[in-house]
Design brief:
The structure holds two protein chains of two kinds. Chain A is an all-alpha fold. Chain A contains six helices and no strands. The longest helix of chain A is centred in the C-terminal third of the chain and has 27 residues. The relative contact order of chain A is 0.17. By secondary structure, chain B is mainly alpha-helical. Chain B is 50% helix and 8% strand. Chain B has nine helices and three strands, in the order αααβααααααββ. In chain B, β2 and β3 form a beta hairpin. In chain B, α1 packs antiparallel against α8, α6 packs across α7 and α6 packs across α8. The two termini of chain B are 20 Å apart. The chains are: A mainly alpha, B mainly alpha. Chains A and B meet through α1, α2, α4, α5 and α6 of A and α1, α6, α7, α8 and α9 of B.
């Protein structure tokens, strides 16, 4: 992100702020798990779940993340309802914002890393 | 317009905790900083914004037209060409910007040496950075789309404005 920081320092500072805040605004462990999925998906790699397997809650949040990353416009009511079985509306709302920050900041890092070398 | 109900009820969201909570406020500050960057032609910015709206299926973004772009000659024939931009008569620099947009929102694997070279033909490094950051900002709506909280409160296409601090405003119908 260094080149971006050189070119747009004020915006890069705001971006750094939201990427720092995202884990504090939601279940940090769950976000880290879903972030690992995003990292693999954006690099077109297979994602390997932890050896211990996934809880039902983790499976629901990973399924949501997969849809968010690949095609948010075709997200279904059921995919969000599934999250509500495990989390309050406030928790879901903050998780979704944290996933946006993670998804787009990772995309920015990858793309800027290629076209702004 | 497709009818989609919100997936979270407004009354279930606690103001200052989730809606307008610390993360959302910080995202708004990031968004404001991005729209205050002005190294690009407003037409390029608007076409990239509308490409994001199209791919993310954001009903609110799709219902808006940026005031500055309208003043720089944006019209609806341009909007209609965005989906098939690769085969359109858009200028080469606009197609390059839309390809960068697609690399950001569809697959970062599209960002290769050929795209870098193409972008450098038309844009400075600061402008390329601005396009990348614009796409990051215009994709803020992904969160609202996921929860289907992005239905516009109007039926017609409206004007989108930003004040000097980057705060958005809505200026009534874009066309008479």
């Amino acid at each position: 992100m260094t080149r971006l920081e050189d070119l747009q320092p004020d915006i890069a500072a705001q971006l750094h702020n939201i990427t720092s805040l995202a884990p504090a605004s939601t279940d940090a462990g769950l976000l880290a798990l879903c972030s690992s999925y995003i990292d693999a998906a954006l690099r077109l790699q297979n994602w390997t779940p932890p050896e211990r397997g996934l809880t039902d809650k983790e499976q629901a949040f990973i399924a949501f993340t997969e849809q968010f990353v690949s095609s948010v416009g075709t997200m279904t009511d059921e995919q969000v309802a599934c999250l509500r079985q495990f989390a309050s509306a406030d928790e879901v709302y903050n998780f979704v914002n944290a996933i946006y920050v993670t998804d787009m900041s990772r995309r920015l890092e990858l793309v800027a890393g290629s076209v702004l070398l | 317009m497709t009818i989609l109900d919100p997936r979270l009820a407004a009354q279930d969201l606690t103001a200052g905790v989730s809606a307008n909570g610390p993360l959302e406020q910080a995202i708004a500050k990031f968004a404001a900083a991005v729209v205050c960057a002005k190294t690009l032609d407003p037409l390029v910015t608007e076409l990239v914004r509308l490409r994001c709206a199209q791919i993310h299926d954001c009903r609110l973004c799709g219902s808006l037209r940026n005031q500055e772009a309208l003043e720089h000659g944006f019209d609806e024939s341009m909007q209609r060409k965005i989906a098939g931009y690769e085969n359109s008569d858009f200028a080469a620099e606009i197609i390059a910007a839309l390809r960068l947009c697609d690399a950001m929102i569809l697959s970062p694997s599209f960002a290769d040496a050929a795209l870098k070279e193409e972008l450098e033909r038309y844009y400075t490094a600061a402008q390329i950075a601005e396009i990348c950051l614009d796409v990051t900002k215009w994709s803020q709506q992904k969160a609202l789309v996921a929860l289907r909280l992005e239905a516009p409160p109007w039926e017609t296409t409206n004007v989108l404005t930003f004040d000097a601090q980057g705060a958005p405003g809505f200026g009534g119908p874009a066309y008479n």
